[in-house]
Design goal:
By secondary structure, the chain is mainly α. It is built from three helices and no strands. Helix 1 packs antiparallel against helix 2.
């Protein structure tokens, strides 16, 4: 029972980690996107020359775009991890399918066994009748 609880707790911890990673990646993408939009507006005045400010904004947009790409790749990895988790931890449905197939095969086996016993009994009866007819026949 404790092994089952431990397994359940580890699954819950893993799912919590997935949820945290998802929130962090989406938050990162949103923050970087909002900053790119702010930089593209160019509404803030600074003491830097306009050309220097444009170059700085362009570099910052590139960095933020790279951060969005990184967060997107992290999300893709997260999706892959979740798929793997679901595949590896979906034992109840797999067990249910195996149980259903086992029941079906046992039923088929019982039917086949019954038919074979019926055939055996019919053949035995026919052979007994044939043997009786042979021994009671005049044409031996």
């Amino acid at each position: 029972m404790s092994a089952q609880r431990s397994l359940t707790h580890s699954k819950e911890a893993l799912l919590k980690l997935y949820r945290t990673r998802l929130k962090d990646d989406v938050k990162s993408m949103l923050e970087n996107f909002e900053e790119i939009v702010k930089l593209a507006k160019g509404e803030h005045d600074t003491q830097l020359s306009r050309m220097t400010q444009c170059e700085q904004d362009t570099f910052e947009m590139h960095v933020r775009a790279a951060n969005i790409v990184r967060a997107g790749e992290s999300l893709m990895k997260l999706v892959s991890d979740i798929k793997q988790y679901l595949i590896l931890n979906d034992f109840p449905s797999v067990n249910e399918a195996i149980t259903q197939n086992s029941k079906l095969f046992r039923t088929k086996q019982a039917e086949c066994d019954q038919k074979l016993m019926s055939l055996r009994d019919d053949i035995a009866a026919d052979l007994y009748d044939l043997e009786e007819e042979y021994y009671s026949s005049i044409n031996k």
